[in-house]
Inverse folding.
């Protein structure tokens, strides 16, 4: 099977065929008697280019499906079935990982992973090999729309006359099936794994944008196709209200897993949008330390320093050395998103100063942090307003602003990306 | 002590009520906003002309129209809540490219007509202040275009909504004109009918402006956008019903005020200045200013929503990227559609010596003629078990909606036949 290029495939090549060119065509028995018209093709997924397994036709007695192997020959005039097939009764219940193309894919929105956006399927492009059909591409372009209208020859001729060199004539906007993610309901285990690998290649921000464009059900389907980490990263970029709506529809255990992966401040924002009962359920399902952290943050209003801060931070004591700091930094790389700056506290956890990555690089490994730390230019109390936090960050060029209790205990940090997001939102 | 022991249930009950009220406030909006956009330039003009030309004779239609409006809008909202998809989306996914294409073309034509009506309304109202259309229309068009594309629209929406309070002028004016209330009320409940072309055209216009096809797309998308869940649907339904009633109460008083003043005086309304006389009992010589303010607000409000909404549905149906948060290169079709609708809408109004009020009426008649086709698809969709499950239409809703569809088809066919006959004769 050839690895076909995504763009510019000639539709005239006999080895290729569009779904629109066979759907609705008559299906005949071996004697030429009309059985009905073709309404759907069912593919088995799991392979990169799924094979058409069976066909569905609608005759006088309603819908009926036949295995594709019973097709004698097919073309633009329709399909003819083999003699033994007509008499047989095929199993009618759909197996998992089977997709009826017209019902679930055609005209629906799917994720184009290559271009990181949502597209609508105008047509499907098959490759024909030894009488078998495999899906090769998804047509998402204008040409597909025109073809579905039945105007392709007409429009081609008109444009050919007016502008023979028009890009429209050559360029089918075909996206390889391998690079799209349909959002139908019927994915089994194998396909979920493929989907997870595929979708994890998207940037979380792109994934977030796609999610926002989807309707509610599809959004839930897409969330199910994501592994916990990818889901958490993407959801951090979405409005907390929408994330809350989404998580309400999944099992509390999975919601808890996703929230644990999110930064505690983002998780707290989402939890505060959940209705009371669901919130308690999800909190109960979360691991104890994470749940406690998030619960503490939930107590603060979201436009104050307490609500803005995250408790994920690197916190070392003045007695520790540069070498220990670097070791700690390496150890916790996974969970701490923000590594350029960290805070130094005394034995009781009171804030003493801060150090940067630069300090660690420039100083001798045996130097104690107490000797190189600086006093933080500004600290915040939990009830300080967003405006004050933003002003301090801007004034002192801080990447993160520490939030302390009245007795000087370091509670958390507000990072500059959260400040930016909130300030942009407040405008 | 016993009092204290009994105390707990009260706060919980109050909390329940309070929570209920908060949920209502949170989902309130789509229905009531839609209602106010519904009373746009075309609406005010059509009701005014209906009252001025037929006096109280069309009042009876408002009761069946209100029932049909509630039923139709409720269906839109319900479909939005249950499926989480817009109407254009549902039509495309269930009926394929061909059906979608023709519906979108029809909707596009009707919406360009409506946009023409909005700009006519803006031109007519500013004319009262002495600003000629060749100046006002381009300025308004550019203002609308910029306001929407710069994303500042949301912040001014509330201003429009508050300005809608100007409609209170009509009830007050109605009472001050002191119409013969027993006659008015009798006319409201006594159906009368005339089988002539102008009467039927007016009737189709009144229905078309009240149950405008594009509103169904707009309302459903607004409900989807709000992310209202089926559990909270009861509140959403209340919002829709309240909105529908507001629309038709305003319509009622516009017709009554016009009947009591213009129709009584035998004025044949041809300009906005004349239509404004309906507010004279309240505002005296300032009537035209008050009318102009109301008409301008309605026109401008709808002109910001209508072209944008239309561009959204068309792009949604064909799978083109849409949204004012996208860059021009990313969502080219969307921006060109939007710009094109605003441009054509404004350009038509610039044709010299156009009878602005007549144009507005005609656009609403067009709405009425398109309505049955949209209704048919809404009915087919809302009765699909796979889509709506337990939320399908009951027999009463189906009955009312199908009856509305059939009546509108009969009236439309009749109107076309009359038009052809007049043309031949």
């Amino acid at each position: 099977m050839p690895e076909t290029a995504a763009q510019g495939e000639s539709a005239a090549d006999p080895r290729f065929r569009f779904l629109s060119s066979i759907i609705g065509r008559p299906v005949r028995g071996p004697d030429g008697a009309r059985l009905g018209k073709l309404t759907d093709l069912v593919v088995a997924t799991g392979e990169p280019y799924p094979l058409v397994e069976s066909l569905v036709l609608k005759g006088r007695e309603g819908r009926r499906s036949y295995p594709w192997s019973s097709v004698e020959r097919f073309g633009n005039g329709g399909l003819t079935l083999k003699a033994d097939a007509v008499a047989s009764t095929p199993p009618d219940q759909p197996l998992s990982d089977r997709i009826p193309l017209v019902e679930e894919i055609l005209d629906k929105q799917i994720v184009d992973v290559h271009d990181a956006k949502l597209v609508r399927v105008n047509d499907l492009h098959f490759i024909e090999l030894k009488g078998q059909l495999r899906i090769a591409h998804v047509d998402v372009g204008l040409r597909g729309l025109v073809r579905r209208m039945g105007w392709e020859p007409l429009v081609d001729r008109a444009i050919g006359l007016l502008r023979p060199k028009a890009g429209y004539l050559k360029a089918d906007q075909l996206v390889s099936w391998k690079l799209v993610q349909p959002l139908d309901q019927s994915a089994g285990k194998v396909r979920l794994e493929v989907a997870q690998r595929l979708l994890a290649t998207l940037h979380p921000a792109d994934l977030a944008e796609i999610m926002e464009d989807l309707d509610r059900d599809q959004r839930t389907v897409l969330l199910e196709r994501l592994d916990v980490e990818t889901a958490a990263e993407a959801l951090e970029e979405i409005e907390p209200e929408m994330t809350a709506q989404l998580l309400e529809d999944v099992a509390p255990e999975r919601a808890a897993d996703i929230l644990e992966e999110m930064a505690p401040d983002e998780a707290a924002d989402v939890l505060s949008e959940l209705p009371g009962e669901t919130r308690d359920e999800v909190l109960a399902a979360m691991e104890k330390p994470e749940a406690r952290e998030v619960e503490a943050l939930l107590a603060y209003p979201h436009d104050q320093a307490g609500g803005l801060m995250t408790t994920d931070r690197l916190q070392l004591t003045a007695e520790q050395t540069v070498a220990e700091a670097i070791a700690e930094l390496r150890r916790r790389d996974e969970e701490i998103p923000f590594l350029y700056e960290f805070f130094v506290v005394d034995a009781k956890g009171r804030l003493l100063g801060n150090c940067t990555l630069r300090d660690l690089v420039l100083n001798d490994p045996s130097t104690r942090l107490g000797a190189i730390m600086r006093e933080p230019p500004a600290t915040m109390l939990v009830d300080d307003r967003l405006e004050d936090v933003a002003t301090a960050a801007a004034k002192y060029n801080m990447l993160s602003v520490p939030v302390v209790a009245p007795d000087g205990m370091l509670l958390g940090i507000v990072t500059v990306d959260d400040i930016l997001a909130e300030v942009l939102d407040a405008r | 002590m016993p009092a204290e022991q009994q105390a707990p249930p009260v706060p919980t009950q109050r909390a329940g009520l309070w929570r209920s009220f908060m949920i209502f406030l949170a989902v309130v909006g789509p229905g009531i906003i839609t209602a106010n956009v519904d009373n746009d330039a075309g609406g005010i003009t059509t009701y005014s002309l209906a009252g001025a030309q037929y006096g109280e004779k069309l009042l009876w239609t408002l009761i069946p129209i209100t029932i049909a409006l509630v039923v139709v809008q409720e269906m839109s909202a319900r479909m939005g809540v249950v499926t989480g998809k817009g109407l254009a989306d549902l039509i495309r996914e269930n009926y394929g490219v061909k059906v979608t294409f023709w519906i979108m073309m029809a909707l596009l034509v009707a919406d360009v007509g409506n946009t023409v009506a909005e700009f006519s309304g803006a031109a007519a109202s500013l004319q009262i202040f002495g600003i000629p259309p060749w100046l006002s229309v381009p300025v308004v068009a550019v203002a609308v275009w910029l306001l929407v594309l710069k994303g500042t629209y949301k912040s001014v929406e509330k201003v429009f909504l508050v300005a809608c309070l100007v409609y209170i002028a009509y009830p007050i004016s109605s009472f001050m004109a002191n119409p013969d209330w027993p006659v008015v009320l009798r006319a409201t409940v006594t159906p009368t009918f005339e089988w002539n072309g102008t009467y039927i055209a007016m009737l189709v216009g009144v229905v078309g402006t009240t149950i405008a096809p594009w509103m169904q797309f707009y309302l459903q998308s607004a409900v989807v956008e709000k992310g209202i869940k089926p559990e909270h649907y009861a509140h959403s339904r209340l919002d829709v019903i309240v909105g529908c009633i507001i629309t038709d109460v305003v319509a009622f008083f516009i017709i009554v005020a016009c009947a009591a003043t213009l129709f009584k005086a035998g004025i044949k309304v041809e300009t906005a200045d004349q239509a404004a006389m309906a507010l004279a009992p309240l505002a005296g010589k300032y009537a035209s200013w008050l009318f102009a303010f109301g008409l301008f607000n309605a026109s401008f409000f709808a002109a910001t929503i209508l072209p944008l909404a239309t561009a959204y549905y068309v792009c949604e149906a064909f799978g083109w990227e849409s949204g004012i948060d996208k860059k021009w290169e990313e969502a080219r079709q969307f921006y060109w559609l939007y710009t094109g609708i605003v441009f054509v809408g404004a350009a038509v109004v610039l044709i010299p010596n156009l009878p602005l009020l007549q144009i507005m009426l005609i656009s609403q008649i067009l709405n009425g003629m398109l309505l049955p086709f949209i209704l048919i698809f809404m009915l087919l969709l809302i009765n699909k078990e796979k889509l709506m499950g337990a939320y399908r239409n009951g027999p009463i809703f189906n009955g009312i909606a199908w009856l509305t569809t059939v009546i509108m088809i009969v009236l439309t066919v009749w109107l076309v036949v009359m038009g052809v006959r007049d043309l031949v004769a």
